[in-house]
């Protein structure tokens, strides 16, 4: 039951990760790095957008310091993801290291998309969703590497599939949530920071703003959650 439920919930990610993973594998192949590189990077790095950036770092001969700084800038948002997952992952036992490693944007969305149904082990659900999502990315990367040497095409715009995936996950969470305060906080904070800091620099300020606002409003959110639980 755990496996079936986790797989069903991860299907939207399957569609996005196969496409983006293939795009990564194809680009990697065109730069002269074969299937072994695609597999190893997807297993041990598994950082989505950072793997795309890593292609240029590898082919451009970037230094370790440059690579580390670039990784920090691209994935800084995960610092905030980790803070919000402390309570959910605290009793995960031996699964915790992998859960922390595999916390991508899409996995984070699935893990935070509400409580699991009765009869489903929550921590096992977290683990299986994380594992399935990484497997999708690995499979996509390998497929892309295999076909990368056979066909070539313009991959511009392929990253929009992840935007579409985020929209689907957001709508699903909106429908299931009893309170939309968190979602509205995220949207409004992002829009305000976008106007102030611009499209290239708004992400980290918006994450900081969201964290501060939700921390200040935590009591309100807890009260609303308790009220919805009582009504149910």
Layout of secondary structure:
Blueprint: H1 2-9, H2 11-30, H3 35-44, H4 49-60, H5 64-74, H6 77-84, H7 86-89, H8 96-101, H9 105-111, H10 122-148, H11 160-176, H12 181-197, H13 203-216, H14 218-231
Helix pairs in contact: 1-10, 2-10, 2-11, 3-10, 4-5, 9-10, 12-13
Task: Write up what this structure looks like.
With 232 residues, this protein is mainly α. Helices cover 75% and strands 0% of the residues. The chain is built from 14 helices and no strands. The chain has helices spanning 2-9, 11-30, 35-44, 49-60, 64-74, 77-84, 86-89, 96-101, 105-111, 122-148, 160-176, 181-197, 203-216, 218-231. Helix 4 (49-60) runs antiparallel to helix 5 (64-74). The longest helix is centred in the middle third of the chain and has 27 residues, at 122-148. The chain is globular, with a radius of gyration of 19 Å. The relative contact order is 0.15.
Tally of helical runs: 14
Helix content: over 70%
Q: What is the strand content?
A: under 5%
Query: Largest sheet, if any?
Result: none
Point out poorly predicted stretches. none
Quick gist of this model?
With 232 residues, this protein is mostly helical.
Can you give keywords for this protein?
232 residues
